[in-house]
Amino acid sequence: MLTHATRTELAALVGLACRAPSVHNTQPWLWRVDGSDEQPVVELYADTSRRLPAADPAGRNLLVSCGAALHHLRVGAAAHGWQPVVDRLPDVRRPDLLARVALRRGEVAETAARDLAAIAGRVTDRRRFTSWPVPDTRLEHLAATGSEEGATVVALLDLARRHRTELLFSRARTRQAEDRLLHAEQRAWVDHGARDGVPGALVPVGGGSRFEDAPPVEAGVEAGVESTDGVLMIGTADDAPLDHLRAGEALSALWLRATTDRLSVVPLSQVVEVPETRAALRHEVLDGGLHPQLVVRIGWQEIARSTLPRTPRRDLDDVLLG
Ligand SMILES: Cc1cc2nc3c(=O)[nH]c(=O)nc-3n(C[C@H](O)[C@H](O)[C@H](O)COP(=O)(O)O)c2cc1C
């Protein structure tokens, strides 16, 4: 049995995990805290009622989002003196149980202050980046950080592969623009509610953001892949739920690192959502060796720019079971 004090402590860790990024800010996760004070356990479940039927019928983005939350939980736990031991997809009969995380008392991570600041400060900043190119070494460093999480993160440094990715990205956008159901779904998640969805205030005007036909708020800014942006691709050896979860952990790891380094990260999932462009990415950009899970663009935001408001999150009571 968990005492009230430990339960409260674990709930706070779940709160940190819920700061993770998720597709359209759907926050498709549920949590359960269990075990004893000596051996507490946090379980992560997929909330499949929050899957996006048009953009994400197979639930890939849902699992990538949950993987990001799992990594946030691990980092938050380590920053509070817990050593997390993760069992991913522990029960084949319950595919919605994504991970069981046993916590043991340990040392507070040396990087605790930095990691907690990164969780608190991380945000999807879709505004146009400055034209300062991100040095290749920085991109390789971020790719290496992500690759420690059981996925492979590739920095697209050569122009031919980058160019191909950009073309496929615009082809995916065109395909999705023709899909009325998908369009309606996307619009529905802009200003969706007080606790989820993408606030219209965070959507830039034109130029490439997937939410660009939402009410324009900040004139003159735009997003899309610019020639000076860094581009990383998260790939995996297989294409099963475990791979999607791992891709999300890699996303979180590289994003928290980038936040510490004052770099901005914007995921671009459309090119992976469209089966045709996902297959082309795999064969034409990744030479058939990896399954693409997510493309992210990386850049510097202008220092003088205002800090963005944080996106909302569901109440802990709504995501913490029993
Ligand atoms: C799997 C995944 C896919 C995403 N795809 C996109 C995308 O294609 N375009 C975009 O602008 N943001 C994308 N995002 C960012 C989310 O919209 C963002 O994380 C969410 O709105 C919460 O906001 P926050 O990251 O500022 O906390 C994606 C995030 C995840 C985890």
Task: Kindly list the characteristics that best describe this protein.
binds flavin mononucleotide, 10 helices, globular, four-stranded antiparallel β-sheet, NADH Oxidase, 2 domains, 322 residues, alpha+beta
Can you put this structure into words, describing what you see?
- The protein is an alpha+beta fold and 322 residues long.
- It has two domains: 4-120, NADH Oxidase (3-Layer(aba) Sandwich); 126-299, NADH Oxidase, CATH 3.40.109.
- The chain is built from ten helices and eight strands.
- Strands 1-2-4-3 form a four-stranded antiparallel sheet, covered by helices on one side.
- It has helices at residues 4-17, 60-79, 112-121, 136-147, 159-177, 180-188, 241-260, 270-273, 275-285, 316-319, and strands at 29-35, 40-46, 82-88, 97-105, 152-155, 230-236, 264-268, 291-299.
- The structure holds flavin mononucleotide.
- Flavin mononucleotide binds next to helix 2 and strand 7.
- It comes from Nocardioides abyssi.
- This is NAD(P)H nitroreductase.
- InterPro entries: Nitroreductase-like (IPR000415), Nitroreductase/BluB (IPR050627).
